Amino acid sequence: MQQQFRNTSRDAVIFVLGAIAALSLAILSNTATGQAAPSTQNSSGDWKQVEDAMGRPGQMMEDVIKFGMPRKDLHVTLNGVAIKPGLALGSWIAFKKAENGAMVMGDVVLTEEEVEPVMRKLQEGGVEIAAVHNHLIGESPRVMYMHVASHGDAVKMAKAIHDAVALTKTPGPDAGGPAATSPEALGIDQKKIEDLLGHPGKVNGGVLQITVPRAETITDNGMAVPPSMGVGSALNFQPTGNGKAAITGDFVLAGKEVNPVMKALRENGIEITALHSHMLTEEPRLFFMHFWANDDAMKLAKGLRAAVDLTNSKK
Q1: What is the pLDDT of residues 93-137, one digit of tens each?
Q2: What pLDDT was estimated at residue 44?
Q3: What pLDDT, on a 0 to 100 scale, did the predictor assign at position 215?
Q4: 265 neighbors 220 (Cβ within 8 angstroms)
Q5: Domain ranges of the chain
Q6: Is the pLDDT of residue 181 over 80?
């Protein structure tokens, strides 16, 4: 009896070891042929129809797919600075799945002549517009920004946005552009700026971009809106030589924060260029403050940090 039990146990062990070996072999085989094991995370494959409707690939940011559409066709200058797309000319659209379809938010960079036809096409396609306004002052040529905030069928909204953008001279996804600049070639100290502001950044086409999320949860129609959908303060640095940088972006603010932040920025030599809303039904109510300066990068980073410290932002 004991002998029989030992034989049965031995056979069971052999079976388990064999199964493990077979599984390991399958994983190694997949790796060798370039096949990845299935992922439980959201992937752009879940948004294939939306990507097809947009006519360009998107980038996954947790449960949000974001489409960047930089206006590389525009040659905009402000106070002698040639503005790069990553500083203030980056159209973007972001989708997040909702209970009955999807939520879409974004910001489309337009020339003055493009505003009316784009607005008409978006509304014809059922995409709601939340704001139309400036972000800068004194730029040439004049640039306007159209914010969308809508809910509905993701593919239909993507098609409407695609058709609206097609009325502009926005380059397609295959258009060439400048290669990403390494931190060493920026001419400003990326690490020191990130340390000063307390948040990491990324270099996009020669521009250092830092996002500072708010600490509270932002909702729109009862749905949580993540920072990647435009509710995080955007602080952008474009090097202009000799350790200087042009900065712009926007602070996302509660009403009680508006004047203290405005005062802090102005005391640090940073101009306020716009104050307005980007959304219609958000909770809590938010205001977006745009700014501009071109000065010593570290000095400006300290000024921005003084303003960030007056907001309810994540540490």
Answers
A1: 999 999 889 999 999 999 999 999 999 999 999 999 999 999 999
A2: 61
A3: 98
A4: no
A5: 1-38, 41-177, 179-315
A6: no
Class for domain 179-315, per CATH?
A: alpha beta
- Domains 41-177 and 179-315 belong to one CATH topology: yes
pLDDT value at 173 more than 60: yes
Amino acid sitting at position 9: S
Q: Does domain 41-177 have CATH number 3.30.70?
A: yes
Secondary structure in 3-state letters for the chain: CHHHHHHHHHHHHHHHHHHHHHHHHHHHHHHHCCCCCCCCCCCHHHHHHHHHHHCCCCEEECCEEEEEEECCCCCCEECCEECCHHHHCEEEEEEEEECCEEEEEEEEEEEHHHHHHHHHHHHHCCCCEEEEECCCCCCECCEEEEEEEEEECHHHHHHHHHHHHCCCCCCCCCCCCCCCCCHHHCCCCHHHHHHHHCCCEEEECCEEEEEEEECCCEEECCEEECHHHCCEEEEEEEEEECCEEEEEEEEEECHHHHHHHHHHHHHCCCEEEEEECCCCCEECCCEEEEEEEEEEHHHHHHHHHHHHCCCCECC
> Could you report the per-residue pLDDT of 138-172, keeping only the tens digit for each?
999 999 999 999 999 999 999 999 999 999 999 99
CA distances from residue 4 to 1, 16, 229 in whole angstroms, order as listed:
5, 19, 65
